[in-house]
Amino acid sequence: MTDQILFTDLALSEPVLKAIQSVGYEVPSPIQAAAIPVLLQGGDILGMAQTGTGKTAAFALPLLSKLDVKQADPQILVLAPTRELAIQVAEAFQKYAAHIPGFHVLPIYGGQDMTSQLRQLKRGVHVVVGTPGRVMDHLRRGSLNLNSLKSLVLDEADEMLRMGFIDDVEWILEHTPETRQTALFSATMPREIRKVCDNYLRDAKEIKIASSQSTGDNIEQVYWMVSGTNKLDALTRILEVEPFDGMIIFVRTKTATVELAEKLEARGFSAAALNGDMNQQLRERTIERLKSGSLDIVIATDVAARGIDVERVSHVVNYDIPYDSEAYVHRIGRTGRAGRSGKAILFVAPREKRLLYTIEKATKKPITLMELPSGAAVTKHRIDQFTQQITTTLAEQPDLSFFNDLLAEFSNKNEVSPEDIASALAYLLQRERPLQVKFTDVKPERESRGEGRDRGGREERGGRDRNDRGGRDGGRERSREDRPRREHNDENMVRYRIEVGRNHEARPGDIVGAIANEAGISSANIGHIKLHDEFSTVDLPKGLSNDVLSQLKKVRVRNRPLEISVDTGAGGNSRDRDFGDRGPRSFSRDDKPRSDKPRSYSDKPRDGAPRGKLGLGDKPKGEKSKSFRPKKFD
């Protein structure tokens, strides 16, 4: 393939090329090869590509190559449908700009402290990556200045449409300079997205890339949901019970390779780090040790592991989940070599479930939930190893006469049975690594592999960030027929109290979206919601871990922390508890909206808002006693 395009052929800037070389990229993916030249020339593009095809680099690399780092106002704005994707894209920009001095990128999304965002925007940033609702908040506040904007990227546009963001996206587009360059990426092309392209893109070049990623049928793929157990402890359990020959454990950073290798060595495993900071001789020696069997576990980064071909690698563990499916395919391809079977284990935190679904969709292979080995299983494994050591030692027929005489003398002198002496010696031998193991097992929430996800395999987000706009009908909530319908058994639910209510302008969609987003609970598993004036109650499945509840305490809705706690029926004012004049507003997951018409707002523009759109300080009609704050989902 002498005519294969390399990144060095694409006229990217020297700092960007240096960063590409640092992360180990050489050959651009199809969408990168097609999109980068167009974006470098300032043209608009319409890219149809699945997640995992390398589209983040397709727009980040050329846009960074044109960046003027001396200009502190935002020059690039990327809109993403979820906070996870916003963080992921921001991290990618930071990685690709590693050799651009003074570069600043800022992810902005609901649920994050607004004060910190305001401070960083005031300091000056070159790239902003945000969810539509939070970007709108900053535009209304005047804290986000887009007068110098050069490029706008709409990432996963069909997902933004599905979540009800398309009106927000168009509102933002109307508040950007007409001279901007626009890149829109979407896996599908529904009519509404095509309309956005026709209205806001200029002579866009269409690029369509089919995803052809796949994984071998001889590789068993499982995942463990990080819940209630330390990741290192969970990994140790798996290493003890799982029969493996050689293993590669993938982490994200060079530092993590060294730290994890040291911790595993301290726990008795033969492990070593493999990262880009090691010289070539040391890397080759580590891989040779893995091949020869003198080393069983290598902890590596994606870059350091490229090209490893060791037949005895029977297992790959994704200790840190990769950010794209392409990296996942490369990782697990280190096992199952030469026709042998292999196993890939993926650690997934609740916030990373979306990445799991993306990997499944891109590879077209299901990844099944695994049970963490119990204390009893680890105990049995250690006992088997212990007894095998005794059997092996006796089979070697060593001269034990000295020890027989010594212990016989001790037995007679102290009137202790040989069994008690053997037990005492066994206890001493296993004291550093006890044979009998007891764990407090916390089972992760089991999800139905269909519930809470749409037909495309994506997680239901039940409102999420679209409720930045208060859940108005203009958010185009999906029809009730499309939502999972589930009857909840009260015996399997626990009622919780959260410290946000009607007086804080909270809506059920805000609560559902926050809990589904932050706790990894499918919206279909969130039960009855009651709104009171100063607080609300929500029914959630039994068995939520302390980690999940601690995380939910900090989640913010309407800029207030949930401070979730089990509802005891006490507390609150008598008006709330006795329901007073108004009483609680009770919502079922299948309730219908109160109105089929969007709320009407003043047509009189304020602070530059376009006619017919909500301007800063506008009030809903018919509400004189309440000051209006633009709807947002925190």
Strand content: 5-15%
Q: In the CATH scheme, what's the topology name of the largest domain? A: Rossmann fold
Query: What is the tally of beta strands?
Result: 21
**Number of self-contained structural domains:** 4
Class of the largest domain, according to the CATH hierarchy?
Answer: Alpha Beta
Strand order, largest beta sheet: 3-4-2-5-6-1-7
* Backbone shape: globular
**pLDDT averaged residue by residue:** 77
- Helix coverage percent: 25-40%
Task: Report the CATH architecture of the largest domain.
Answer: 3-Layer(aba) Sandwich
Oligomeric state of the chains in view: single chain
Distance between the termini: 51 Å
Radius of gyration from the CA trace?
29 Å
Q: Count of helical segments?
A: 21
* SS-based class: alpha/beta
- What is the CATH superfamily label of the largest domain? P-loop containing nucleotide triphosphate hydrolases
Short descriptors:
ATP-binding, Helicase_ATP-bd, DEAD/DEAH_RhlB, alpha/beta, 7-stranded parallel sheet, Rossmann fold, cytoplasm, single chain, disordered C terminus, 4 domains, 634 residues
Polypeptide structure, described:
The chain is an alpha/beta fold and 634 residues long. It has 4 domains: 7-208, Rossmann fold, CATH 3.40.50.300; 219-374, Rossmann fold (3-Layer(aba) Sandwich); 383-430; 464-587, RRM (RNA recognition motif) domain (Alpha-Beta Plaits, 2-Layer Sandwich). The chain contains 21 helices and 21 strands. The protein has a 7-stranded parallel β-sheet with strand order 3-4-2-5-6-1-7, with helices on both faces. Strand 18 (556-557) and strand 19 form a beta hairpin. The two termini are 51 Å apart. Mean pLDDT is 77; it is low at 441-488 and 572-634.
